[in-house]
Amino acid sequence: MTNIAVTTWSLEQTAPTDLLPAAAPEGDVRIVRAEVPSPEFSRFLYASVGGDIHWTDRLGWSHARWREHLERPGVETWVAYDRGTPAGFVELTPGDDGVVEIEYFGLIPAFRGRRIGGHLLSHGTARAWDLAERWPGLATTKRVWLHTCSKDGEHAMANYQRRGFRLFDTKVEEEADVATPGPWPGAFPA
């Protein structure tokens, strides 16, 4: 197996006023919080969005592990729907001292390039900033951060920067070059 160099960039906002919202796309696009923890639905979103960009870290999670993660106080999944069909999601995970990570964000391939991503990222970031309002006991958000890497979509970094995220760290690491898993075996051409 060969290795590839993967660059990971970490970006942040340190005040709600850092957010530069994107315009809403045309059409019937809605963003709804998935309030009932559903390992099946969350795994579907994860595999469908990340299947062509090498998201593999959660593919081996058991149903119980998914449920444990989703039931943590403050973990939220916001789903974009285009005419009733799931188009993508953003997952928020609170950390210590008012830090919220946008742990996952992305669109199912068929919905990319339609201006849904900027709108979903804007909405998800705003929900990270007001997370404590929905979760008594969580500290008020002081910082929102995320990471992206050279395996992500070609427009990811530009979208984050247009939404007001600023780069604070860059790392390059060797990783095994694995085939894209797709949402199911053989979903994407090799």
Automatic annotation (TrEMBL):
One Pfam family named in its UniProt record: Acetyltransf_1
Signal sequence interval, chain numbering: none
InterPro entries reported in the protein's UniProt record: Acyl_CoA_acyltransferase, GNAT_dom
Residue intervals of the N-acetyltransferase domain: 29-190
Protein's UniProt name: GNAT family N-acetyltransferase
